[in-house]
Amino acid sequence: MAEARDETRTTYLPAGMPAPTAASDGVDREFWEGARRHELMIQRCKDCGTFQMTPEWICHSCHSLDVGWHRASGRGRIYSFERVWHPAHPALKGACPYLVVVVELPDAGKVRLVGNLLGDPMQEVRFDAPVEAVFEDHEGYTLIQWRVV
To answer: Scanning 7, 71, 94, 107, which has the fewest C-beta atoms within 10 Å of its C-beta?
Structure first.
């Protein structure tokens, strides 16, 4: 049986989780800085227009080195999901079950992002359901979560 959630928490994830950081080479820095600004930034090739996630220094499609960033709307559709019953990290022990979704972004070349689905962890999840990004601020970083709209 899942432990009761602390309803006074202001964040979805419990304390004790490691903070995400930009890669040491900085290739994904704009993604994380965008999240802190409450913007969903997706890498896009300036030559062929292909969107890509995860960020790289080279376009996955045309191999151009001229890649930049595009501000996506933050709206997507549930492509897949998993109801997590076994914690992936010790800090998540009391958070189970929780929902993890793969979200497809129609306005960003249908790239897909993984995140938590907010709300009741026992809610019915419908494939292709519309969702929107929710930015969860922490000290020093911001996470992107999702909620059904």
So the answer is: 7
Alpha helices in the chain (DSSP H): 29-36
Report in angstroms the alpha-carbon separations of 114 from 37, 64, 78, 101, 143. Answer: 19, 26, 10, 6, 11
For residue 128, give its domain range. Answer: 29-148
The residues, ordered by sequence, that sit 6+ positions from 86 with a Cβ below 8 Å of its Cβ are 96
Nearest residue to 101 via CA among 71, 133, 63: 133
What digits encode the pLDDT tens for the residues 43-90? 999 999 999 999 999 999 999 999 999 999 999 999 999 999 998 899
Question: What is residue 20's DSSP assignment?
Answer: P
How far is the C-alpha of 75 from the C-alpha of 42, rounded, in Å? 13
Measure the CA–CA gap between 48 and 72, rounded to whole angstroms.
Answer: 17
Task: Give pLDDT, residue 8.
Answer: 46
Q: Is the pLDDT of residue 6 over 80?
A: no
* Residue 128 placed within a domain: yes
Residue 112 lies in a domain: yes
